[in-house]
């Protein structure tokens, strides 16, 4: 017995007797002898709860989290303040431990929460239909591509270079299996430049704001796609949608995105959730779970999983996607967060981020050796170009307890010394002032080092 | 429709579809057995007018809460009418599969194909 | 305004203009006009109509909602194929440590050593459990792990200049298998099961040719039965140059007892939310790592967590993300995977260790066979016979066919009546090849008393049905809502709150 099992010797005797065997070993008789493992697994013995805790704590101490430094890292996941009420709700047994709501009569809590979440996403994006969530942002973009392929059967995706590098790579990975071509639309001064689209484009995929923080002309891009008979897929950062024109207003067909910023922790990249919302015409092609409102036999209001015939457990090889589950707990955190922010709170939050981002951008632009990478409007993130090796600048900032942002070198080699700086409500003016000073000093020191060498 | 019913004036296809033949035209639908197996129908994806249907090939789908089923053409021809009322009330397929629950009307391209279809009694025998 | 019983009001319907929970921090930078920063033609006219509620209302709303959910911490949850085993409470404590929870995924690896080391150690442990040395933690869920498997197979054959178009799946396969095959760009070919519930070897031989890329298998199968012909299956599949893929949904039956790698599988996926105790969360999150053989390793997703020795005696290991993988299939998702899930699964593996994992599987199989034996007694077995007359592994399937015929209640009715007894029903109507199927998986964390009680409840419901079938047919009675009109929900789709409320 371990601390999680309960078979005593007395139990064992009775149970084996009822089954009609003499030992547990006999229960495994179907396994060919040659396949039986003849040694224990090469893993350490089990540990007490206390020892496991100590080990996990020691591992945690070997990483530098947002608790340990002033961080301006963004690029798809952001260090927002997660209010305490979220944990107090999502750690409740009734939300944490049940399975997918296949028996709706005893899952009304979870199903209603999904319905509320779907409503909140619909409000943010303006799209009439949202599902109950998918895994996360980049795979949601690929899933949207699958919907476009199923809808129009065309052979090519056009994806903006402003879409998150991880999303672009997901699309390429899947498109290869679908024998579809992926063509990249370049960025000009931070905005997507769409060339003439042929009639073989299944979908145009863009991001709003894009990876470099720029607000795109989403309406124009969607119009160009529509003219070519292609769908428009837009990966959106959800908080800026409180201020930005909605994807629906811009004529987008499928709005997806990474939901981490909505009440979920960083968790080194997951779990979080992806949202997936679309026009009514695409309802029956939506992947994933969808909760719907109905009544029970007594006329009481209730909620059920609906349109399940799209899904793998019924449709099997003809399913709209292979996705089996949602990210129900993370989506619940999302809808609680959005309720906590509220209609006015979300606007105030994003306006605060907008102004602080503008301040940071202004201050950094004024630093010698730092230039804006583009001058398009931004909301909560922007990119600069440094006249010094970006990795060296980051190292110097670290010494000041500051993580200044994400270096663009690997993902955008054309911006070898580019730096992506993210501002959340946790980064105060004082933090920003420190950032500006640290970068300024670092760039100056690096330039001086180069000058001295020359 | 609560009790099994297989009208004698219709011809039946092994994939659980019926045809009511009238000269060189026919009306198609699904049988009592099919709607019973499906359960409550929630959606009928109506094919387009003028579309060609081919004997033994699926020409559309009927969707219930728990399943989606291909609907097979008992005979070949061109669709001349589609039951529009099913868009609002797809459950008519369950309530009246041989009457108001008809799916399409077809102008037959080869009326001789009807010879290979089953009678009501042969179809019922095949269900056992 | 809808006037409903208070408990079904949505958070939007509790909204009242002016209420709020969030107060924004003071604006400490210049209050530049919005128009300057974000021109009006980029802006929406109306903000999203989110609820206006204060904290107490939000807390009460979701607390009350939670009480309309049945959950594993509260009661028995024998859902076949889902492995609803206890979620250790330690795991939330360790997952919440800031060094894990507030770590940014793009933190420089030099400053994320704790996380990368944890991932590497988890990979190592999973590889040992599977008997396959190379592990990717990237896939977000079992079905994404399956997709990885199909794409890895494709990459292998393409690298050899082969073009194959089909993937074989048994007729007992979980729906994600064929859905994944289609999504992976292949055609599904079904292989039938024989009368013992195993893959029919003759049918497999007939269908396995050089156009087949892969056979996807669950072992034990979804019938809870070990594929006794697995060695022959391996010969057939590898004989035509196809890969053998292991759907790890039923791993709970064999940990420490046998290993898919030793059976000849090339690719294995794990469901960390099944055998490795990640809480199900009402339908996610989970994780679906894959373990692969040497020949598949080059194609693993990018990036891979690796360990680099920085000194020759290996004392200074550096854990890193390796992007330099030219043959990789690419990415299935962003960043590195569901790290929060890895923390919990790693804590579980460290808690149990080799002996504990083996004991978990042995007890899972013991509990299932014990419950099966109870349900094969008179009073139950005539109506709910076991689908196959064999010892089971960690789960078993009963058929409600005789029950329907004799007692005039269906498996669905039995399930609904179980709700009135405070237990979650087993999986119903799966696998598809068993008439009125009922799939029962008790798991190892249940006591003998719970199993005894469940058997009594089932016997009681059958006895009740013999006297009056109508009771089960109209069940449940004591749940927050009774049977729901699912057809109506699909016909008249309402998937969001209408506004204004």
Characterization of the model:
The complex is a heterotrimer of chains A (454), B (128) and C (501). Chain A has 454 residues and is α/β, with parallel strands linked by helices. Chain A has helices spanning 9-19, 49-61, 84-90, 93-96, 108-125, 137-152, 165-177, 218-227, 247-250, 312-315, 328-365, 390-399, 429-453; strands spanning 70-71, 129-130, 156-160, 181-185, 187-188, 191-192, 201-208, 231-236, 254-258, 274-278, 291-295, 301-305, 370-372, 381-386, 402-403, 406-407, 418-422. In chain A, the strands form five sheets. Chain A has a seven-stranded mixed beta sheet with strand order 2-10-9-8-7-3-4, sandwiched between helices. Chain A has a four-stranded antiparallel beta sheet with strand order 13-14-17-16, covered by helices on one side. Chain A has a two-stranded parallel ribbon with strand order 1-15. The longest helix of chain A has 38 residues, at 328-365. With 128 residues, chain B is of the alpha+beta class. In chain B, 37% of the residues are buried. Chain B has one domain: OB fold (Dihydrolipoamide Acetyltransferase, E2P). Chain B has helices spanning 32-38, 92-95, 120-127, and strands at 11-13, 17-22, 25-30, 41-45, 52-53, 58-64, 68-72, 77-82, 104-108. A six-stranded antiparallel beta sheet of chain B has the order 1-2-3-9-8-5. Chain B has a three-stranded antiparallel beta sheet with strand order 4-6-7. In chain B, strand 6 (58-64) and strand 7 (68-72) form a beta hairpin. Chain B contains three helices and nine strands. The model of chain B has no long low-confidence stretch (mean pLDDT 92). Chain C is of the alpha/beta class and 501 residues long. Chain C folds into three domains: 6-66, no CATH class; 90-349, 3-Layer(aba) Sandwich (Aspartate Aminotransferase, domain 2); 354-486, Alpha-Beta Complex (Aspartate Aminotransferase, domain 1). Chain C is built from 16 helices and twelve strands. Chain C has helices at residues 34-37, 55-66, 90-95, 98-101, 113-130, 142-159, 176-183, 201-207, 230-239, 260-263, 339-375, 401-407, 411-419, 448-467, 469-473, 486-491, and strands spanning 134-136, 166-170, 187-191, 212-218, 243-247, 267-269, 290-292, 304-309, 317-322, 396-399, 427-428, 437-440. In chain C, the strands form three sheets. A seven-stranded mixed beta sheet of chain C has the order 1-7-6-5-4-2-3, sandwiched between helices. In chain C, strands 10-12-11 form a three-stranded antiparallel beta sheet. In chain C, strands 8-9 form a two-stranded antiparallel sheet. In chain C, helix 6 (142-159) packs across helix 7 and helix 11 (339-375) crosses helix 14 (448-467). Chain C starts with 33 loop residues before the first helix and ends in a 10-residue tail after the last helix. Chains in contact: A-B, A-C, B-C. At the A-C interface, helix 1, helix 2, helix 3, helix 4 and helix 5 of A face helix 2, helix 3, helix 4, helix 5 and helix 6 of C.
């Amino acid at each position: 017995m371990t601390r999680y099992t309960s078979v005593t010797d007395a139990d064992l005797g009775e149970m084996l007797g009822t089954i009609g065997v003499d030992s547990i070993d006999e229960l495994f008789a179907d396994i060919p002898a040659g396949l039986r493992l003849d040694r224990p697994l090469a893993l350490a013995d089990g540990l007490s709860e206390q020892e496991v805790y100590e080990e996990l704590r020691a591992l945690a101490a070997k990483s530098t989290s947002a608790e340990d430094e002033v961080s301006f890292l963004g690029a798809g996941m952001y260090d927002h303040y997660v209010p305490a009420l979220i944990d107090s709700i999502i750690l409740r047994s009734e939300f944490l431990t049940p399975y997918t709501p296949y028996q709706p009569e005893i899952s009304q809590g979870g199903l209603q929460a999904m319905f509320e979440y779907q409503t909140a996403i619909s409000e943010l994006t303006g799209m009439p239909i949202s599902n109950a969530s998918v895994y996360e942002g980049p795979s949601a973009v690929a899933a949207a591509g699958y919907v476009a392929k199923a809808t129009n059967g065309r052979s090519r995706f056009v994806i903006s270079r402003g879409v998150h590098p991880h999303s672009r790579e997901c699309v390429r990975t899947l498109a290869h299996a679908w024998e579809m071509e992926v063509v990249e639309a370049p960025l000009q001064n931070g905005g997507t430049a769409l060339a003439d689209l042929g009639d073989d484009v299944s979908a145009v995929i863009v991001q709003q704001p894009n990876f470099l923080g720029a607000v795109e002309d989403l309406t124009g891009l969607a119009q160009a796609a529509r003219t070519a008979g292609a769908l428009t897929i837009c990966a959106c950062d959800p908080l800026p949608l409180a201020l930005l024109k909605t994807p629906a207003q811009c004529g987008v067909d499928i709005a997806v995105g990474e939901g981490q910023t909505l009440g979920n922790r960083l968790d080194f990249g997951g779990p979080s959730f992806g949202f997936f919302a679309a026009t009514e015409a695409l309802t029956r092609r939506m992947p994933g779970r969808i909760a719907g409102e109905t009544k029970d036999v007594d006329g009481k209001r209730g909620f059920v999983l609906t349109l399940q015939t799209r899904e793998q457990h019924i449709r099997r090889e003809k399913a709209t996607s292979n996705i089996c589950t949602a990210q129900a707990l993370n989506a619940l955190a999302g809808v609680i967060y959005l309720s906590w922010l509220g209609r006015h709170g979300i606007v105030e939050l994003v306006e605060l981020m907008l102004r602080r981002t503008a301040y940071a951008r202004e201050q950094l632009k004024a630093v010698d050796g730092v230039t804006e990478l583009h001058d398009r409007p931004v909301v909560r993130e922007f990119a600069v170009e440094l006249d010094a090796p970006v990795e060296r600048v980051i190292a110097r900032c670290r010494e000041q307890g500051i993580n200044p942002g994400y270096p663009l070198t690997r993902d955008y080699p054309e911006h070898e010394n580019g730096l992506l700086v993210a501002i959340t409500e946790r980064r105060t003016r004082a933090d920003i002032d420190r950032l500006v000073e640290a970068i300024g000093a670092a760039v100056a020191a690096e330039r001086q080092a180069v000058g001295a060498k020359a | 429709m609560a009790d099994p019913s297989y009208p004698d004036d219709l011809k039946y296809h092994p994939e659980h579809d019926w045809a009511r033949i009238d000269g060189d035209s026919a009306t198609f639908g699904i049988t009592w057995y099919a709607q019973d197996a499906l359960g409550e129908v929630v959606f009928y994806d109506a094919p387009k007018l003028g579309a060609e249907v081919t004997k033994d090939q699926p020409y559309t789908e009927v969707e219930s809460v728990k399943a989606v089923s291909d609907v097979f053409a008992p005979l070949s021809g061109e669709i001349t009418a589609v039951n529009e009322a099913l868009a609002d009330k797809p459950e008519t397929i369950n309530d009246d599969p041989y009457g108001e629950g008809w799916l399409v009307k077809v102008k037959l391209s080869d009326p001789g194909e009807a010879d290979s279809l089953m009678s009501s009694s042969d179809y019922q025998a095949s269900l056992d | 305004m809808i006037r409903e019983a208070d408990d079904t009001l949505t958070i939007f319907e509790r909204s009242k203009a002016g209420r709020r929970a969030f107060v924004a921090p003071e604006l400490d930078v210049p209050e530049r006009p919005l128009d300057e920063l974000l021109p009006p033609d980029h802006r929406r006219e109306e903000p999203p109509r989110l609820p206006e509620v204060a904290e107490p209302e939000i807390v009460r709303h979701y607390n009350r909602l939670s009480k309309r959910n049945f959950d594993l911490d509260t009661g028995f949850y024998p859902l076949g194929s889902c492995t609803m085993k206890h979620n250790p409470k330690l795991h939330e404590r360790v997952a919440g440590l800031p060094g894990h929870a507030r770590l940014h995924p793009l933190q420089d690896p030099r400053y994320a050593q704790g996380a990368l080391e944890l991932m590497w150690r988890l990979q190592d442990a999973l590889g040992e459990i599977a008997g396959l040395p190379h592990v990717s933690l990237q896939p977000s869920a079992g079905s994404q792990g399956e997709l990885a498997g199909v794409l890895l197979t494709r990459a292998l054959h393409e690298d050899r200049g082969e073009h194959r178009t089909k993937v074989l799946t048994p007729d007992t396969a979980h729906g994600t298998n064929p859905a994944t095959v289609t999504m992976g760009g292949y055609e599904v070919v079904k292989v039938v099961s024989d009368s013992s519930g195993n893959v029919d070897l003759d049918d497999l031989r007939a269908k396995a040719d050089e156009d087949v890329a892969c056979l996807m298998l669950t072992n034990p199968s979804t019938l809870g039965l070990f594929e006794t012909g697995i060695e022959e299956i391996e010969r057939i599949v590898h004989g035509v140059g196809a890969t053998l893929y292991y759907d790890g949904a039923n791993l709970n039956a064999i940990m420490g007892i046998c290993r898919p790698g030793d059976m000849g599988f090339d690719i294995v996926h794990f469901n960390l939310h099944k055998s490795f105790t990640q809480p199900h969360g009402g339908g996610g999150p989970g994780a679906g790592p894959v373990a692969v053989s040497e020949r598949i390793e080059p194609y693993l997703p990018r990036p891979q967590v690796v360990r680099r020795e920085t000194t020759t005696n290996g004392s200074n290991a550096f854990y890193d993300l390796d992007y330099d993988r030219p043959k990789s299939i690419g990415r299935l998702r962003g960043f590195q995977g569901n790290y929060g899930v890895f923390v919990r699964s790693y804590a579980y593996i460290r808690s149990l260790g080799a002996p504990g994992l083996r004991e978990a599987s042995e007890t899972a199989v013991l509990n299932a066979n014990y419950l099966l034996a109870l349900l094969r007694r008179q009073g139950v077995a005539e109506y709910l016979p076991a689908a196959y007359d064999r010892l089971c592994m960690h789960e078993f399937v009963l058929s409600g066919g005789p029950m329907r015929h004799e007692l005039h209640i269906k498996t669905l009715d039995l399930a609904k009546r179980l709700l009135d007894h405070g237990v979650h029903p087993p999986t119903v109507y799966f696998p598809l090849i068993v008439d009125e199927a009922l799939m029962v998986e008790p798991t190892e964390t249940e006591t003998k008393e719970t199993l005894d009680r469940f058997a009594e409840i089932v016997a009681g419901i059958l006895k009740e049905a013999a006297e009056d079938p109508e009771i089960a047919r109209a069940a449940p009675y004591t749940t927050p809502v009774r049977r729901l009109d699912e057809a109506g929900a699909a016909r008249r789709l309402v998937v969001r709150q209408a506004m204004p409320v």
